[in-house]
Here is the input.
Amino acid sequence: MNFAARRALVRAVPVAALLLAVTACAGDSSGATPHSASSSPASSSPASSGQQEASSSAAPIASADRNTAMAIRVTIDGRPVDATLNDSPAARDFADLLPLTLDLEDFHQTERIADLPRRLTTSGAPDPDVPRVGDLAYYAPWGNLALYYRDGDSANADLLILGHVDADADRLGTADRITIEAAS
Here is the structure.
């Protein structure tokens, strides 16, 4: 089974369970209002396929954890760019790994990915948010880092936004090596 097929299979089981739960709750006539950030994930993560179905409900509200709390130094292919990490538990755990130099590879013409030396915490994760160009994210099922050079299609609970890199999509899309350090 190839890499993409395995990743899709890993995503299919939890998505099916979530869809069953959502379907079961849809018949609830208690008058409760659904959460605005409850867009349903598609069969694969932006970090896994780059092609997700968008929810027909309103767009998810940006998470407060997208607000940046810590400046970091990022060098992409030898050229520095401004970047920040948010104040989520996963971002703080990621900061403990710094400095890191990672070789990037393309994934589904949406993001550049690299394996991290260890898995990050996912406890206390913020509500899922749609990844945008420049977002630095952690895909929990695989334990890898993703740097988006195209916007994702929808939010996914397995994808935690860690921060943002201020670089244009062309530069991000061709990045081969990234160095991430704590700012002094």
Summary: The chain is about 20% helix and 30% strand. The mean pLDDT is 75. The CA atoms of residues 96 and 182 lie 9 Å apart. Strands lie at 68-76, 79-86, 100-103, 105-107, 111-115, 135-139, 144-148, 159-166, 177-182.
